[in-house]
Design the sequence.
């Protein structure tokens, strides 16, 4: 079975500082990894994904994520946080096979303060 | 290109009534997923459908819940005899190609959700 762990319920960072939201995964085959962001009372917006190739993936709104196979991690990063980045962030793994549903982590709330 | 469309956005039902949630996938997408998000929790997979076929319903409760994606029209998630514990946000998502190893990297796009409140 595939699973994702987001060890931090909340991450607090000051505006302008770099941010990291952690994610580790467990999957039997090749991992296809995704990050989504959710603003209050809204749906999930796709940020970025890792399929294959370069371990550093760049996505929307200045976010990037680094795939580390040896540590089975896919941490989300941004060099300089904005107050408007405050939201709920979900890491997800896509299973291979016929039923390719996304399995989500429990989410990490990012709070960026002035 | 319109995104995944869900309606209603908000739905209030009394205990014992039926809730029917609709989802139209993005244009060109033929595969639909339903997820449930309970308050302050993550997303839990419910069901994965393609037109006229249920691919994976391993996350669906055994009773009262059903889903369909007919040849014509939106996908429907139906909850019969709702109870207070059914109160949640229900999200639909779609993807452009079938599942399977070759296409597992395709992005799944989400709708804005349907918030069900059972009173």
Sequence:
């Amino acid at each position: 079975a595939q699973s994702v762990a987001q060890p931090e319920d909340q991450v607090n960072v000051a505006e302008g500082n770099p941010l990291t939201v952690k994610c580790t995964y467990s999957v039997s085959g090749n991992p296809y990894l995704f990050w989504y962001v959710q603003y209050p009372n809204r749906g999930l917006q796709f940020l970025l994904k890792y399929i294959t190739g370069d371990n550093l993936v760049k996505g929307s709104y200045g976010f990037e994520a680094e795939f580390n196979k040896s540590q089975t991690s896919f941490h989300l990063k941004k060099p300089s946080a904005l107050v408007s980045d405050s939201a709920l962030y979900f890491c997800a793994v896509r299973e291979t096979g016929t039923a390719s549903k996304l399995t989500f982590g429990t989410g990490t709330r990012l709070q960026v303060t002035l | 290109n319109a995104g995944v469309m869900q309606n209603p956005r908000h739905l209030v039902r009394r205990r014992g009534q039926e809730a029917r949630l609709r989802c139209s996938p993005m244009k060109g997408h033929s595969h639909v997923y339903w997820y449930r998000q309970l308050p302050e929790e993550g997303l839990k997979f419910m069901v994965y459908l393609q037109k006229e076929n249920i691919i994976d319903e391993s996350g669906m409760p055994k009773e009262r819940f059903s889903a369909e994606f007919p040849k014509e029209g939106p996908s429907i998630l139906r909850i019969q005899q709702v109870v207070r514990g059914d109160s949640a946000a229900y999200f639909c998502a779609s993807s452009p190609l079938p599942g399977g190893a070759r296409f597992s990297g395709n992005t799944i796009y989400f709708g804005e959700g349907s918030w069900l409140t059972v009173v």
User: Anything to note?
Assistant: Chain B touches chain A through 30 residues (CB under 8 Å). The radius of gyration of chain B is 14 Å. Chain B has a mean pLDDT of 90.
